[in-house]
Amino acid sequence: MSQEKPTTQKKSGFPWAIVVILTSFVVSELIFSFVFGARSHFADDLKKEPLSGDYFGIVYKGGFIVPLLMTMFLTVLTFSVERFLTIRKAQGNGSLEAFLQTVKTKLHNNDINGAIAECNRQKGSVANVVVEGLNKYQEMEKRTEFTLEQKVQSIQQEIEETTSLELPSLEQNLPILATIASVATLVALLGTVLGMIRAFAALATSGNPDPGALSAGISEALVNTAIGIGTSALSIIMYNIFTGMIDKLTYGIDEIGYSIAQTYAATRK
């Protein structure tokens, strides 16, 4: 009796990451120019002085580095939502722990068809790996020319190959989060340095320092620091959450793969 094979997740060849980053940049520039830079947030037409307590105007005074940091922030948010949905889908329809226990029980009872049916109900990356191992398990029943050791090795190899196809799709875009975690802080530091240069330049003017230029420099320094640190912190947190979720899936795959191979070896001696 043929069994339905769960659909394996595939890595898309389209450069969605570049599209997301470019879109985030365009959105950031529009928000920076037309929302934060709206005339209503400033006391003068030249937008030198934000209104008292107007944070939109203060953020706008952060300078051209702010849209870059906003791009990183929006990119982190987008990929965080995308990775959460992808990894959640990879976990399957029900509890992963309950699924693994059910499959182990059916293996112990030599109910291979029942275990495959359970994989078809569960779906997800772990189920994809398990069903391939179980299909190989059934195939080895018919391969009388193989020794027991060769059959067990063939089952383990099938599970390892399927795992190597599943994991890359789960780890996609995580390197971008890890990169932003470091780069956002450096870009914020650049904005901070530029802001302090502007502030010290205002202090160095002859006669009375220009209070507008001085406040603009301080605003630029502090706004970039705040946005950069916040973006970096969010990126680190989400990266660690997703790697933890993937590690849990990997552990489940290793555990059930070992059980399949050992069950076959124990019942065929």
Task: List the main descriptive attributes of the protein structure presented here.
269 residues; 9 helices; 0% strand; rod-shaped
3D shape: rod-shaped
Low-confidence stretches: 1-8
The structural domain count equals: 1
- Helical residues, percent: over 70%
Strand residue content: under 5%
Biggest pleated-sheet summary: none
End-to-end separation: 26 Å
Strand tally is 0
Write the layout of secondary structure elements.
Elements: H1 16-36, H2 55-60, H3 65-91, H4 96-108, H5 112-122, H6 124-142, H7 148-171, H8 174-203, H9 211-267
What does this structure look like?
This protein has 269 residues and is mainly α. It has one domain (16-267). It has nine helices and no strands. The protein has helices spanning 16-36, 55-60, 65-91, 96-108, 112-122, 124-142, 148-171, 174-203, 211-267. The protein is rod-shaped and about 95 Å long.
